[in-house]
Write a structure and sequence with these properties.
heterotrimer, A alpha+beta (400), B alpha/beta (139), C alpha/beta (157), A: 400 residues, alpha+beta, Cytochrome-c3 Hydrogenase, chain B, 3-stranded antiparallel β-sheet, disordered C terminus, C: 157 residues, alpha/beta, Beta Polymerase, domain 2, 5-stranded mixed β-sheet, two-stranded parallel ribbon, 3 helices
């Protein structure tokens, strides 16, 4: 007998309106359906009425957590359209802010994952460390989120000696703290047992459903735009693409932890080897008729912008595809093999940035056909109850 | 006398509900960051609740999209009296950069009555705390 | 595989199905095909060139024609397949039989431009709200939006 249960647009776990309808049988989910549209703001139509520079501020506000990645992807594309190239120092500063944003986003996600699994202390610790990164970003750009540091042809603010020294100190503190946490997390058997085996997505399914980012990399698919399409600075910096083989939520945690360590290395390299010179070149007002596809690796996956110009000072077409939209079919597939109590964890594992795409969850009770809106907090309480009654999986090992 | 007791208890422990109506997430992360050890809003008695039926104060962010308009009105009616609404961020005040788009109503006060406006894009956690405290001062 | 190798292999595989092929920038290849050859070209890309990842599907309103671009990504750059369909008869075949992950992008094309994707597994609208009036396609160039007047509570208009 099947039920359909709705998880409505307002719930406390995820910070964005999202609607899912899941058909359940007992505790096992048989089918899942996602309703988008709560966050649809009509950006692509709005972008056709604003000039090239005004669009930088519009694309920044597509998402609050990955705001710099959208702005950089757009500015990269427009610079190629106008055939200008920013100077080396400008490029280094731009991608330094990008790697700092990756660090802050992964720390945020680790806190949210800990919160969904019931590990609230981890949540408080990682968000306290995130404040170190926010201070560095505020020192460089002036704001904690939406650092408007990009402009057509380079960046707007420069770094001086004291800021470089303070940033390097911040990296040291963060690295020591991160290593301590990951040692604790790896040797905590309940945390590892909670995450192992949840949200399984095999390698063939990840390739078929076009998954991106850490969701795909945790299933063994080495897809990373920084290596596939190295633009500007990434062909000079040594770094590795991090993958894992376990295909579940534990693999995604491991991939993000490894990426954090890589980002610390990249930031230190960029700070120590900052070349001298200008930070921006002057950009023309109009662009010749041309088109370009710009790709960029945001913390959640691949960000794609397709830009077309027609000779005036406004774009003809701006198409934005954010990484979470690409992970939706993979999420539906993962939910089909799970339990109700695992819904918050599976959903948080793809790092949903719903402002890049809306969702809601509705569980429909198939037995009586009645629709019940379950608050996400009720689901989380169910998850914690189940966690307490789970037989401990003694052979679950942290695959580091 | 009972009145004073009730007023004192209302000021000392406002329970909030966080409502996102299509925002870019920056203001929401700042609301959650207000709970973390650096800003620590729980020392004022503020608790983040899950359901509108337990809440005193609704904190709303984001420009209101057409799809979520009915749901917001329903949630506002589910909250028991006396209730207060705080609109956080430039999007909830007037739509920020999205003014003029075809799916946007243009600010939270087009849908439900608002008591306090907190400006900023995004509003810093200190500013949100300041808004909550000013609201409590008027009670 | 570099750009030149991919272009050679595509030319030898598809021959005259390709109307035009350009390489405007490093690691960007653009191929133009006719709408009826679209699914066979995509299946050939998947089988022989191992290109399976659809980044996104964009639509363009060019007045008399709609142009649809399918952006694929591979290990060394990206390849885009474009096709044009007439405005009077906007039908295009779905590629979900070859690549199941393209379903959401095709649903968005249906909402925003009013194209009709044949044999799509799930034809429901994706992003428009529940009370959206029918036959309103926001991204077409001739669709304008009149903003209703705002009420400022407690203030002058």
């Amino acid at each position: 007998m099947k039920f359909t249960i709705p998880i409505g647009p307002q719930h406390p776990a995820l910070k964005e309106p999202i609607s899912l309808r899941m058909t359940v049988e007992g505790e096992v989910i048989r089918d899942a359906d996602i309703r988008l549209g709560y966050n649809h703001r009509g950006l692509e139509k709005l972008a056709e009425e604003k000039t090239w520079i005004q669009n930088i501020y519009l694309t920044e506000r597509i998402c609050g957590i990955c705001s710099h990645s959208h702005a950089t992807c757009y500015v990269q594309g427009v610079e190629k359209l106008m055939e200008i190239a920013p100077p080396k120092r400008g490029n280094y500063i731009r991608y330094l802010v990008a790697e700092l944003e990756r660090i802050h986003s992964h720390l945020l996600w680790l806190g949210v994952a800990g919160h969904e699994a019931g590990f609230d202390t981890f949540f408080m610790y990682t968000w306290r460390d995130r404040e170190v990164v926010m201070d560095i970003l505020e020192m460089i750009s002036g704001n904690r989120v939406h650092y408007a540091i990009n402009t057509l042809g380079g960046v707007r603010r420069d770094l001086d000696e004291m800021q470089i020294k303070k940033s390097l100190e911040g990296m040291e503190i963060l690295r020591k703290r991160s290593e301590y946490y990951f040692k604790i997390g790896a040797s905590e058997p309940t945390f590892v047992a909670r995450l192992a085996g949840v949200g399984y997505l095999s390698k063939e399914q990840a390739i078929d459903l076009c998954a991106v980012g850490p969701t795909a990399r945790a299933s063994g698919v080495p897809r990373d735009v920084r290596r596939d399409d190295p633009h500007a600075v990434y062909d000079e910096i040594p770094f590795d693409v991090c993958t894992a083989d376990t295909c579940d939520v534990l693999g995604r945690v491991v991939v993000r932890v490894k990426e954090l360590m890589e980002s610390y290395k990249i930031c230190e390299f960029l700070l120590k080897n900052l070349p001298a010179g200008d930070i921006a070149v002057k950009a023309p007002k109009r662009a010749k008729p041309n088109e370009f596809l710009s790709r960029y690796e945001a913390p959640r996956g691949e960000n794609t912008h397709y830009i077309k110009s027609n000779g005036t000072d406004k774009p003809e077409r701006l198409k934005v595809r954010a990484p979470t939209l690409a992970n939706y079919p993979a999420t539906v597939q993962m939910l089909k093999t799970g339990f109700i109590a695992d819904i918050p964890l599976i959903f948080a594992a793809i790092d949903p940035c719903i402002c890049c795409a809306e969702r809601t969850v509705e569980l429909v009770n198939a037995r009586t056909g009645e629709k019940k809106i379950r608050r996400f907090s009720e689901l989380r309480k169910l998850a914690e109850k189940r966690f307490n009654e789970l037989p401990s999986k003694r052979n679950a090992v942290w695959p580091f | 006398m009972l009145d004073r007791l009730v007023r004192w208890s209302r000021i000392k422990s406002p329970w909030i509900l966080h409502l996102n109506s299509g925002a870019c997430n920056a203001c929401d992360i700042e609301v959650v960051a207000a709970l973390t050890p650096r800003f620590d809003v729980e020392r004022f008695g503020v608790l983040l609740k899950a359901t509108p039926r337990h809440a005193d104060v609704i904190i709303g962010t984001g420009p209101v999209t057409r799809q979520i308009k009915d749901r917001i009105i329903r949630i506002y009616e589910q909250t028991p009296d006396p209730k207060f609404v705080i609109a956080v961020g430039a999007c909830a005040m007037s739509g920020c950069v999205y003014r003029g788009a075809y799916n946007i109503m243009g600010g939270l006060d087009q849908v439900i009555p608002v008591n306090v406006y907190v400006p900023g894009c995004p509003a810093r956690p200190d500013a949100i705390l300041d808004g909550v405290v000013k609201l409590l001062g008027k009670l | 595989m570099t750009d030149l190798e991919i272009m050679e292999k595509a030319k030898s595989l598809f021959g005259d199905k390709i109307v035009e092929m350009t390489n405007p920038a490093v690691r960007r290849i653009f191929i133009k095909v006719e709408p009826q050859n679209l699914v066979s070209v995509v299946a050939g890309l998947r089988k022989d060139l191992n290109i399976t990842y659809v980044a996104t599907i964009s639509g363009l309103d060019l007045g008399e024609f709609f142009e649809i671009l399918y952006h694929f990504g591979h290990d060394n750059g990206s390849l885009t397949v474009r096709t044009q369909i007439p405005r009077a008869n906007p039908h295009i075949e779905s590629i979900c039989s070859v690549i199941p992950g393209a379903i959401l992008y095709e649903r968005e094309l249906q909402d925003m431009f009013g194209l009709i994707v044949d044999h799509i597994p799930d034809p429901r609208p994706l992003v428009v709200p529940d009370d959206w009036p029918a036959n309103n396609f926001p991204l077409r160039k001739d669709w304008k939006f009149e903003r209703p007047a705002e009420i400022i509570p407690g203030g002058k208009k």
